[in-house]
Every structure is written in structure tokens, then in C-alpha cells.
């Protein structure tokens, strides 16, 4: 690439900018909206010149939504916290269970192994609504409804198969001989798993973790049915912005910005490992 | 049994014994695959063993069972008196060089090679000295600070070899240790590695499909085919006393000339009628008759079907009673390969030095009885090697 002539580089830059603008424009627009009042957002024609205001953020963080119909209590920060708890704990639990399971599926042949792996994958095929109703009834009788524990458990339906199947592929790509070499050098099986297999599969684990986190973060229906306002994540909590007196675009935009931030930070963080995985390369024998 | 190889004297420590070792893959399925079938291999302390065979013959499975990567379906592997087949690899005290190199990608070559020693808390200075020594031997001293993905396949392979050779283990297992090297380098390293192994009395088992490598490096060679150990003998014995037709045709370059033949008896005279592909008589060779002083072939019956083998190097050219026609002629720089038609059968002969023979010309050849290998037709086991019965064949 370095040997390209000047005009090719310029052309590539222009094209990339156009693509980036096209895809990032909605986010950029939402970002601008979050600093505007409902009036400036809705004026016609729209303009990017406006007087920025922080009132949307203030309203979200203080939990008091001021509209022309009066003051409305919203629990946005609570919802954001719930989202964080649910997603982080779900993904952590899935990693804890899924990474060793993925290794087992990748390395060992055992009875019904493929069937179990496929069954776990099939959780991703079924529409969530299919299982929600019976699940809600069971949870009701087990006392798990409206608890973090119950929600995190159900979130495993989303995160576990994803992590299991992505990480399994990465484990399969690692040369078994590297593990054997380490074991012949005098290390136990468990140590080999922790010191060789997991680090070598780290780009895969990072990718799976990122995807699982995004899916968990974006989940809507499970929490809508199985949780009350107290335990609801932002996806469900955002419904509160549709008020009797109208839709609060400014606050919606601000809440979007706030709720996208953790995912964005995580993506930026995990990206380093994804890139490292590409540059490490040549692990295969 | 093996005079001169010197391994019998060293009974002291790390004898490696494979006792009826068997490996069956998918034993409970409908199609179990027997990869290794009752292999017996007593390996002396400090002995260098080559496992030789074509792909899928079970040689790598055997090596991996010794290392502990494959379970042993039945039989026993012992080091000295210690049965090791149920121990995890870490506790077997073996070192291994992998065909796929299997270097640790995040470590520099230096750290890869010294890894096991550093792990066992050897002093850093000692490790550094040993790394320098072994990498000097393998000519990879200049890449010690590089990372595995950035060096060539040949360098990776030598690094993997160095990582094994540096260790102080009961057994050294090398899987195709030099397959990626250029021929010249391979020849040089072969000699150096052999030296290294002998001076340190390292019990070594290496896998190869290259018979030149096996013959050059090994004290004894185990020829495997179809999971069965065909013969376990010195390189010389494999050439002079192949246990069966497979070993005879597998070992040697160019391969042994082999013909289906039948025994004829005419009074006191005894001989073989060799056949061409179509089953017609191609040529006859005489064996010492009943009245000869050593008459080892006495028990051959008239009309008995056998296989007759002659090494190309043992064919005498320009003398004797068989008349053939030269069909091809290749000068290889140090020897001449000559294709000769005898009747309708093809015989390959090797002459040392330049041998003048035009294609199409007639040539007299002799097949001395001392150079004939006779194998049973059905079992394909060796019956006679030259003038000696092959009763001690494996």
C-alpha cells in the first residue's frame, strides 16, 4: 500500500470520508440533537447552527423531566446502571462458562458433544417471544421475576451461545502441538489451558465478548417482560420519553449518547486485541 | 543380536520399551481404526531409533503415544522400570520437536529454546550458554532475538529442534525434524545432530519418511506399514536381510528388482524361473544344487512359488550367462542407472562410475546366488538372503 502513487491515496481518502459520513451521519445528528431543545430540533428547515444547551443532560442526570405538562420523574441513570450490571455480569458469567466449554468442544470428542453444541446454538434461532411466556410463568412461581439473578440467567440465552461458538472456532485454529509442546515442557493440562490456549485465543475471546456485550446491552424484550421499572435497562427505560405531552427528542438524543458510550468505549478497548490478533497471525502449524 | 552397535552394554538407566503397544481410534464406533498394532520395540539407553514408513503407517501415532498425546489402547510403554503410559506428558520427562514446529508465538526464539530450562529454574547464565551451544550447532544463532512468525519455516523447524535438544530428558522424540531444510544443510546438520546425540547419550526416537535420513542418523530403524512393525533392525540388516517383501521394496534406492518366480528342480540342479508381468518366463537363475558344499536351498520344492529379489547394486554387468537388452541409461554424476530388458521383464542395474552402454545394445549380466533374496509367495516373508536361510527374520 505504501508504494501507491499520490492521487490514488487522495482518492482513497475521499472515498473513505464519503462512506464514513454516510454511516456516521445519524450518530453525528443525534449528538447534535442532544444539545438542542425540542423547539430547535423541530424547526423547519433544520439547521446545524443553534445555541447549545445542556438541559437535556441535566434532566437525565437529575432524573427530572421538565416538560410543558409539568415535571416527570424518570429513572434514566438507574436504568443505565441496570444495563451495566446486567450486561457486564451476563458477559462475565458467559465467559466463565463459555470459554472452558468452547475449549472442550474444540479439543475433545465426547458422546453427544456435537449435539450439545448445536442445541446451545439453536437458542439463537428461536424468537425470544416463543420462550418468554412460559419463562415468565416459571419465573413467577420460582420467585425469579424482577431479580438481577433471573435476568442474568435469561441473558445467558443471548450471550453464552455466541461466546461458545465464536471462541470454539478460535480454539480449533490453534495448533494442538503448541499445547503439547508446553505440556511436554513439564506443565499440567490446566496450566496449558490458562497460559497457552486462552492467551492465543484472546482476539477471539475479545471479539466474542464485544458482540455478546452489545447483544446483551441492546436486549429489550426479556427485560420488558421479566423486570419491573426497578430493574429495567435503558432499552426499556427509554419508553418513558414518550410522554402524554409529546416525544422528548432532545432527551432521547441525550440518552442515546449516554447509553452508546459504554459500548463504544468497550469497542475501542477490545479493538486493540482484535488488531493484535490479526498482527500476531501465523499461530497455525 | 546386534554386534557392534554397542547398545546392549548400556542397561543402566533410560531404556525405553514399547511392549505390544496398540492404538485403536474410535474403538467403540462401527469402524474402529487400528493405527498401531502390537508394536514391540526395546530401545536401549542412548540408542537412536528411526521410525520409517509412508504417510499413515502409524509412525507418528507411535511417537505421540510415547510423548503422551495419544492414549495407549493396549500394551505398555516403560522407561527403565517405570510404566509411563498413564502419566500425563509433563511427568514423562520426554522432549519433543514437532513437525509443525509449535513455537510459542509471543516469545523470542531465545526464550522459546530456553523455556523448559528456565521453567525448571536453571540459572540464567547456564541457560544462555546452552542456548548458544545448541543454536550454534543448528546455525540459528543469528535469529535468537526474532519472533517465530517472522522467520522462515526452516529456521522455525531448527528452533523447534533446538528447544528439544537443549533439554535433559529420558527420551527425545523428533517428528520429521529436518523436513523443511535444504538438502545441503540437512546433510550437514544430520552429522552434527548425530554427534550431539551420541556424545550426550540421548535416547532418541525420530520419525521420518526419508530413508536416507533414517539410515544416516539411526542406530536401528523400525520400518512400519499399516500400523504393523515390519522390521526393527540396523540399516545394514534392512538392506541385506529384509524381513519381508515390503521392507525389501521399501528400503533401497533405486528399489530392489522383484519378480514372481517358481522353483525348478532338474536332477541335482536347482534354480528359479522368473516371470514377467504377464506371467511368462522371463529368465532363469541357477541356485547351488544338492551336491554343492553349502546347499541351503535344499528345502525348496519343485514348482514352489516365490518372489525373487535382486538389489540393483548387486547385478553384475558385462559378465555371466544372462543376455539382456539395454533400454535406458542414466548417468547420475556418481553412478549409472541402467534399465535392462530380460525376456519381457525389466531389471534395473546400478554401475559405479560411468558405464558405457547404448540403448538397444545387448548386454551380458550375472545374478550371483549370493545376492538373491527369496521370499515366500503368499506370506511374503523372507526365506533366503543369498546363501543364508532367513530364519531369524522378524
Q: Topology, please?
A:
The complex is a heterodimer of chains A (285) and B (394).
Chain A: H1 6-33, H2 38-42, H3 55-62, E1 64-67, E2 70-73, H4 76-107, H5 113-122, H6 128-142, H7 148-173, H8 176-184, H9 189-200, H10 202-218, H11 221-226, H12 234-237, E3 242-243, E4 246-247, H13 249-280
Antiparallel strand pairs in A: 1-2, 3-4
Helix pairs in contact in A: 1-13, 3-13, 4-7, 4-10, 5-7, 7-10, 8-9, 10-13
Chain B: E1 16-25, E2 33-43, E3 48-52, H1 59-67, E4 74-79, E5 82-83, E6 94-97, H2 109-119, H3 124-138, H4 153-165, E7 171-175, H5 183-199, E8 204-208, H6 211-217, E9 220-225, E10 228-233, H7 235-240, H8 245-250, E11 257-266, E12 269-275, E13 281-287, E14 305-310, E15 316-331, E16 335-342, E17 345-352, E18 362-366, E19 372-376, E20 382-385, E21 388-389
Parallel strand pairs in B: 3-8, 3-9, 6-7, 7-8
Antiparallel strand pairs in B: 1-2, 1-4, 4-5, 9-10, 11-12, 11-14, 12-13, 14-19, 15-16, 15-18, 16-17, 19-20, 20-21
Cα-atom radius of gyration of chain A: 24 Å
**Count of discrete domains of chain A:** 2
Strands of chain A, total number: 4
What share of the residues of chain B does DSSP label as strand, in percent? Answer: 35-45%
Give the distance, in angstroms, between the N- and C-terminal Cα atoms of chain B. Answer: 12 Å
**Biggest β-sheet: strands ordered side by side in the sheet of chain B:** 13-12-11-14-19-20-21
The dominant shape of chain A is flat
Give your account of this protein's structure.
The complex is a heterodimer of chains A (285) and B (394). Chain A has 13 helices and 4 strands. Chain A is mostly helical and 285 residues long. Chain A folds into 2 domains: 68 residues, no CATH class; 205 residues, Orthogonal Bundle (MetI-like fold), CATH 1.10.3720. In chain A, strands 1-2 form a two-stranded antiparallel sheet. In chain A, a hairpin with a 2-residue loop joins β3 and β4. In chain A, α7 runs antiparallel to α10 and α8 runs antiparallel to α9. The C terminus of chain A is likely disordered. With 394 residues, chain B is of the alpha+beta class. Helix content of chain B is 21%, strand content 35%. Chain B contains 8 helices and 21 strands. In chain B, the strands form 4 sheets. In chain B, strands 13-12-11-14-19-20-21 form a 7-stranded antiparallel β-sheet. A 6-stranded mixed β-sheet of chain B has the order 6-7-8-3-9-10, with helices on both faces. In chain B, strands 2-1-4-5 form a 4-stranded antiparallel β-sheet, covered by helices on one side. In chain B, β4 and β5 form a beta hairpin. The N terminus of chain B is likely disordered. The chains are: A mainly alpha (285), B alpha+beta (394). Chains A and B meet through α8 and α9 of A and β6 and α2 of B.
Amino acid at each position: 500500500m505504501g508504494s501507491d502513487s499520490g492521487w490514488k491515496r487522495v482518492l482513497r481518502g475521499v472515498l473513505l470520508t464519503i462512506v464514513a459520513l454516510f454511516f456516521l451521519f445519524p450518530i453525528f445528528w443525534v449528538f447534535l440533537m442532544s444539545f438542542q431543545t425540542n423547539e430547535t430540533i423541530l424547526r423547519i428547515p433544520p439547521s446545524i447552527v443553534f445555541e447549545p444547551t445542556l438541559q437535556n443532560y441535566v434532566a437525565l442526570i437529575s432524573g427530572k423531566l421538565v416538560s410543558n405538562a409539568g415535571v416527570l420523574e424518570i429513572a434514566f441513570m438507574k436504568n443505565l446502571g441496570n444495563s451495566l450490571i446486567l450486561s457486564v455480569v451476563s458477559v462475565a458469567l458467559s465467559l466463565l462458562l463459555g470459554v472452558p466449554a468452547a475449549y472442550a468442544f474444540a479439543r475433545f470428542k465426547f458422546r453427544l458433544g456435537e449435539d450439545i453444541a448445536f442445541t446451545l446454538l439453536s437458542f439463537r434461532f428461536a424468537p425470544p417471544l416463543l420462550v418468554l411466556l412460559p419463562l415468565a410463568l416459571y419465573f413467577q412461581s420460582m420467585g425469579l421475576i424482577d431479580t438481577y439473578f433471573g435476568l442474568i440467567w435469561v441473558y445467558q440465552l443471548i450471550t453464552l451461545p455466541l461466546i461458545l461458538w465464536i471462541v470454539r472456532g478460535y480454539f480449533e485454529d490453534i495448533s494442538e502441538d503448541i499445547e503439547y509442546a508446553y505440556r511436554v515442557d513439564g506443565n499440567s493440562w490446566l496450566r496449558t489451558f490458562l497460559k497457552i490456549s486462552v492467551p492465543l485465543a484472546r482476539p477471539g475471546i475479545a471479539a466474542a465478548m464485544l458482540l455478546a456485550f452489545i447483544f446483551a446491552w441492546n436486549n429489550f424484550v426479556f427485560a420488558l417482560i421479566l423486570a419491573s421499572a426497578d430493574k429495567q435497562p435503558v432499552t426499556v427505560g427509554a419508553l418513558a420519553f414518550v410522554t402524554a405531552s409529546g416525544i422528548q427528542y432532545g432527551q432521547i438524543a441525550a440518552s442515546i449518547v449516554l447509553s452508546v458510550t459504554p459500548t463504544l468505549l468497550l469497542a475501542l478497548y477490545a479493538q486493540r486485541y482484535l488488531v493484535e490478533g490479526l498482527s500476531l497471525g501465523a499461530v497455525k502449524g | 543380536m546386534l554386534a557392534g552397535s554397542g547398545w546392549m552394554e548400556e542397561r543402566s538407566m533410560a531404556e525405553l520399551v514399547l511392549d505390544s503397544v496398540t492404538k485403536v481410534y474410535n474403538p467403540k464406533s462401527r469402524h474402529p481404526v487400528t493405527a498401531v498394532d502390537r508394536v514391540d520395540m526395546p530401545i536401549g539407553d542412548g540408542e537412536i531409533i528411526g521410525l520409517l514408513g509412508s504417510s499413515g503407517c502409524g509412525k507418528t501415532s507411535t511417537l505421540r503415544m510415547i510423548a503422551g498425546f495419544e492414549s495407549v489402547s493396549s500394551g505398555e510403554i516403560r522407561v527403565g522400570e517405570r510404566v509411563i503410559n498413564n502419566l500425563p506428558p509433563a511427568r514423562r520427562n520426554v522432549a519433543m520437536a514437532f513437525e509443525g514446529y509449535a513455537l510459542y508465538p509471543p516469545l523470542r526464539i531465545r526464550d522459546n529454546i530456553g523455556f523448559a530450562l528456565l521453567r525448571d529454574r536453571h540459572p540464567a547464565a547456564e541457560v544462555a550458554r546452552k542456548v548458544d551451544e545448541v543454536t550454534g550447532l543448528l546455525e540459528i544463532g543469528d535469529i535468537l532475538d526474532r519472533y517465530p512468525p517472522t522467520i522462515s519455516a526452516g529456521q522455525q523447524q531448527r528452533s523447534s529442534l533446538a528447544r528439544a535438544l537443549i533439554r535433559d530428558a529420558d527420551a527425545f522424540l523428533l517428528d520429521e525434524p529436518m523436513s523443511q531444510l535444504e538438502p545441503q544443510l540437512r546433510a550437514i546438520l544430520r552429522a552434527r545432530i548425530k554427534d550431539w546425540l551420541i556424545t550426550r547419550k540421548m535416547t532418541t526416537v525420530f520419525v521420518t519418511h526419508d530413508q536416507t535420513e533414517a539410515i544416516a542418523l539411526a542406530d536401528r530403524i523400525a520400518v512400519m506399514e499399516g500400523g504393523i512393525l515390519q522390521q526393527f533392525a540396523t540399516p545394514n540388516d534392512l538392506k541385506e536381510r529384509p524381513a519381508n517383501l515390503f521392507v525389501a521394496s521399501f528400503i533401497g534406492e533405486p528399489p530392489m528388482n522383484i519378480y514372481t518366480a517358481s522353483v525348478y528342480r532338474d536332477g541335482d540342479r536347482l534354480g528359479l524361473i522368473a516371470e514377467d508381468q504377464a506371467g511368462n518366463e522371463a529368465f532363469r537363475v541357477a541356485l547351488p544344487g544338492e551336491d554343492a558344499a553349502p546347499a541351503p536351498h535344499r528345502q525348496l520344492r519343485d514348482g514352489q512359488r516365490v518372489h525373487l529379489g535382486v538389489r540393483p547394486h548387486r547385478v553384475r554387468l558385462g559378465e555371466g550367462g544372462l543376455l539382456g537388452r539395454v533400454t535406458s541409461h542414466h548417468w547420475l554424476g556418481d553412478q549409472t542407472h541402467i534399465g535392462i530388458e530380460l525376456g519381457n521383464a525389466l531389471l534395473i542395474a546400478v554401475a559405479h562410475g560411468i558405464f558405457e552402454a547404448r540403448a538397444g545394445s545387448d548386454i551380458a549380466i550375472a545374478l550371483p546366488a549370493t545376492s538373491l533374496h527369496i521370499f515366500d509367495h503368499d506370506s511374503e516373508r523372507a526365506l533366503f538372503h543369498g546363501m543364508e536361510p532367513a530364519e531369524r527374520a522378524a
